[in-house]
Amino acid sequence: MRRLILRAACFLMLGAAVPSLSAHYNMLLPDKSSLKKGESVTFTCQWGHPFEHELFDAPKPEGLLVVAPDGTKCDLLKTITKTSVPAGESKKVTAYQFRFTAELRGDYIFLLTVPPIWMEDEQEFYQDTVKVVLHVQAQKHWDAAAGGEFELRPLTRPYGLTDGMILQAQCRAGGKPLENALVEIERYHPSPPKLLPPDEHITRTAKTDPNGVVTATLTEPGWWCLTAQRDGGGREHEGKKYHVRQRSTFWVHVDDKSVSSSGK
User: Fold this and answer.
1) What's the CA gap between 134 and 35, in Å, rounded?
2) Could you give the 3-state DSSP secondary structure of residue 238?
3) CA dist list (Å): 217 to 161, 164, 170, 182
4) Among candidates 148, 142, 139, 140, which has minimal Cα distance to 171?
């Protein structure tokens, strides 16, 4: 308890400078990172530890927006259906899915919002928005804003990446760059790894520069998330007021360099 109290005090003094003891993230993952016009893709919304593939029941989304390559916005919340996904050790957990068909060439931006999540161990709430870019043939619109109040906008094209490449993104709050924001970086495993490295090799951390820019080296193929965080005020829980950690997660896919170079 003393550790939690000290950690909460540090968070308030440093403004989101203390990383989470448990790397819980909302995941918004399409079953294909790119496709052709007219093709369809299934997105899965799940919750847990991406690196360990330790999943828990996902919160029901309260918002789902897609911004098309021509700037048109569409509310997809009613297309979401409840499902279950394997969570390791022969158990299943609640997740959510939706199907999407790309009618235009260009890049689609998906923005998911979930209700505040009470974190018992941390004694605080997480307020998450989650973003991912779906590439459809033409390279346009990938750097556009999705309209979130707190958002990571890519400065590096977030597809066509191979392992070892650098990704830069700008953290923006209220339309302005947010400097000195803590950003957590973690890779997703589609199944639990047999061996786990030390915690510092699971969740990396970086700070945004004076222009709100964070730089991350994505060292392996697969899905990666960058999660920026800031102070989100307070919220009541069981008659007491607790801190809210507002987070913005951006998912990006890294292609296998050996496959890309072979043309397969």
Assistant:
1) 8
2) coil
3) 11, 6, 15, 16
4) 148
Contact 255, 160 (CB under 8 A): yes
The Cα–Cα gap between 198 and 213 comes to 27
Q: Are 255 and 161 in contact (CB under 8 A)?
A: yes
Long-range contacts: 74-82, Cβ < 8 Å, 24+?
76/100, 76/110, 80/45
Q: Please give the C-alpha separations between residue 247 and each of 69, 174, 197, in angstroms, as whole numbers.
A: 25, 14, 25
Say how many CA atoms lie within 13 Å of 64 toward its Cβ.
17
pLDDT of residue 260: 59
DSSP 79: G
Domain 2-262 class in CATH: mainly beta
Q: What pLDDT band is residue 261 in, cutting at 50, 70 and 90?
A: low
Average pLDDT of the residues of the chain: 90
* Phi, psi (rounded to 5 degrees) for 79: -85, -10
pTM summary value? 0.90
Per residue in 136-162, pLDDT (tens digit) is: 999 999 999 998 899 999 999 999 999
